[in-house]
Amino acid sequence: MMRLQGIWTQIKLVVVFAWLYGWLAVVREPFWLVSSLLTPLSIVVIMTIFGGLHYLYLGLLGGLAMTVSASGGFTIIGDAVYLRLELKFQSMLLNTRLNPVSYTLGLALSELTYALPGLAIFIVLIQATLREPASTYLLATPVLALEWVTASMLGFTLSTFLSDVRYGWSLSGILGFLLGTLPPVFYPAYLLPTPYIALVSPVSIASTVLQYLMLKVNYPSMLIKLGVLTLLAEALVFTVVALRKSRWRSVK
Amino acid sequence: MDLNVNRGRLVTLLGPNGAGKTTLVRILTTELKPSKGRLTILGEDALRNPERIRHRIVSIPQEAKPIYFVTPYELVFSYLVFRGFSISDARIEARRALEELGLWEVRDKVMNNLSGGFKRRALVAMVLASGAELIFLDEPTTGLDVFSRRSVWDALARLKGEATVVLTTHYIEEAEFLSDEVVMLNNGSVVARGTVDELLSKVEGEYVVEAYGLDKPVFEGYSYVKLNNRYLVYVNSSEESSLVAKEYAKMGGKALVRRKTLEDVVIRLVGGWSNDEASGDLDSN
What we know:
The complex is a heterodimer. By secondary structure, chain A is mostly helical. Chain A has 9 helices and no strands. Chain B contains 10 helices and 14 strands. Chain B has helices spanning 21-28, 50-54, 72-83, 87-100, 116-128, 146-159, 172-178, 196-200, 238-250, 262-270; strands at 10-14, 40-41, 44-45, 57-60, 134-138, 164-168, 181-186, 189-194, 207-212, 223-227, 230-235, 254-259, 274-275, 282-283. In chain B, strands 4-5-6-1-7-8 form a 6-stranded mixed sheet, with helices on both faces. In chain B, helix 3 packs across helix 4 (87-100), helix 4 packs across helix 5 and helix 5 runs parallel beside helix 6. The longest helix of chain B is centred in the N-terminal third of the chain and has 14 residues, at 87-100. Chain B is globular, with a radius of gyration of 22 Å. Classes of the chains: A mainly alpha, B alpha/beta. The interface between A and B is medium-sized, with 29 and 34 residues.
């Protein structure tokens, strides 16, 4: 009972944090809404121009997967470093009921709030072109949620090791490229020597599962099962890492 | 460093830049883990079980800033919810704290449109509303005008006896006005501690003549220190201080007279003065 109450309290804190840092930012500075959409949409446009309709589908699914991870992991780094070093906000929250995981989820939910219009555009475009049944989205949503948690926890943990706000923005960009563009996110994994390379990044795992579900790409079912299991394991591991190894308290 | 602070006291940490005030506060708030030593806060081993005390203490770090796109009300309200207040209690306490610090009129203005003084006061309102047993304020009034500072002082004075407050400041009058006890730090060590009166008694005289403009003045029979190109002469009475100031002015220098403050104690204890045996006076040389 106590444990349930504790979880409920943490959920409430996550929502209040997202209201404070996400919703209030969005309603007061709406230009932030489009920024998360620009990178994945640019890639989709270029892919469609040079690759045609088939690549539009791949691009849209990759764009959805990338927007989900960007709305957590990659952009969270910059904001987490900013709040910790520039505003000292993390230090002030140390003496509250927030813990590293609820703080990270609150921050990630804030980022997701900025990204909602981008996600909505991708979902509308996917639905307009692929006409997927609701059941497909029911299967895809937990995979995207796991990707979001994994990227967020990884991003927050990394952010706590940075000593300058500027490094945060740089690392966001580097991670976005290494995990969200280089692996098979916007292109099918079967173009690689082995499709199992898709397992290297949570973003490419999510994108590969989406391709399997929505484009019926002929991936081995073992790859999809392994992908989901890997994502689940990564979400758990990175959450534990954020809780235990992130620098919630300072070391110097 | 060996330091005990009794409950319900307002203790001020004073010392020059780099003395270790902020480092000490960061350790005491459990933000910074020390490499060794013991730390007991509110009866708990704060190094072994920091989680047990974190919800009982609050702090405003030095140079902390509020999120720029939120209002003072939103900031205080959300902080109280993070502290564990119910939504309705957070609303009530946020209003009370904002009214107390003169922020209620600007409660709906985003921080970006408020002056530095309002922003700083919003942070102070956050911790005052929290009802914590132990409050750490690292230079909370830096950058505030004379009016804003006094509203913070009033709020802190109200807390006396209810909560323990550890304050760091560079404003001597703030320390004198608020402190039950003052701890002077230098190079990571406590160099003196006591009430304001106890510390003031460490410097002779009641008045100080600050004299400048002459190279080799003579203050026979008086204790004095040299600080850069300025001499601080310690005298016992107002009449004496006027006499010294007039004599100095006659010689072509300039002098002003003031009462002795904690600043003189800081200068004396951490300024690096040594006893000049030849004259019996204190001199920086």
